[in-house]
């Protein structure tokens, strides 16, 4: 069972539908016991960093998320979910993230001639041996929608990068923690393979 954590930050149905297409059993929930009992968890999300952290606190999910992360079971953050895994964001100064991993969320630079938010397909430079990207070709394209990006503190955590006015840490892996700035559920067959790889970690 994969728990998709519901904290009123959107993007739940498309993730649920993609996993259902792969034949995976999911539950959309904010119930602490259900989340902690799941084999895997996903923290999706779109929207503002500060609002999302406010919702996680309001629903009593911060400790639950830390408990799941500490369990060693596979845990995936998607888009805003990736950003929340880290310590802070320039979008919401003074608001602490979950701090599961070390790094900061930066605003995409202006003045590059590129549109912000970044909306569209970008190719990935994939690091060697990353489990999330098994059987995915170097340079594969995935779909992004964001105005802020991850700058991870530890290069060893970075699973894939892309370029959009700056070098973006597009995905991370650290022990049982996985996250991606792009939307695998909207990234065609490449995205489905990423979700398949994640789901396979608990089998």
CATH architecture: 3-Layer(aba) Sandwich
Q: Portion of residues in helices?
A: 25-40%
Structural class by helix and strand composition: alpha/beta
Question: What distance lies between the first and last C-alpha atoms, to the nearest angstrom?
Answer: 11 Å
Tell me the β content: 25-35%
Radius of gyration based on Cα positions: 15 Å
Largest sheet: 8 strands, mixed
Task: Throw out a few tags for this protein.
26% helix, 203 residues, 3-stranded mixed beta sheet, alpha/beta, single chain, Rossmann fold, 6 helices, 8-stranded mixed beta sheet, globular
Plain-language structure description:
By secondary structure, the chain is α/β, with parallel strands linked by helices. It has one domain (2-200): Rossmann fold, CATH 3.40.50. Helix content is 26%, strand content 30%. It has six helices and 13 strands. The strands form three sheets. It has an eight-stranded mixed β-sheet with strand order 2-1-3-4-13-12-11-8. The chain has a three-stranded mixed β-sheet with strand order 5-6-10. Strands 7-9 form a two-stranded antiparallel sheet. It is globular. The model has no long low-confidence stretch (mean pLDDT 95).
Structure at a glance:
The chain contains six helices and 13 strands. It has 203 residues and is an alpha/beta fold.
Question: How are the elements arranged and paired?
Answer:
Blueprint: E1 2-5, H1 12-21, E2 26-29, H2 32-37, E3 40-43, H3 49-58, H4 62-70, E4 75-78, H5 80-84, E5 88-89, E6 103-107, E7 118-123, E8 125-126, E9 141-146, E10 148-152, E11 158-163, E12 167-174, E13 177-180, H6 188-200
Parallel strand pairs: 1-2, 1-3, 3-4, 4-13, 5-6
Antiparallel strand pairs: 6-10, 7-9, 8-11, 11-12, 12-13
